[in-house]
Amino acid sequence: MSEGVAQDPTPDVRYAKSGDLSIAYEVLGSGPIDLVHVPGFLNTIEGRAAAPSIARLYEYVQRFARLVNFDKRGSGLSDRLAPGEIPSLEERVEASTVRDLVGPGSRSSSAAGMP
Question: What's the pTM?
Answer without folding.
Answer: 0.76
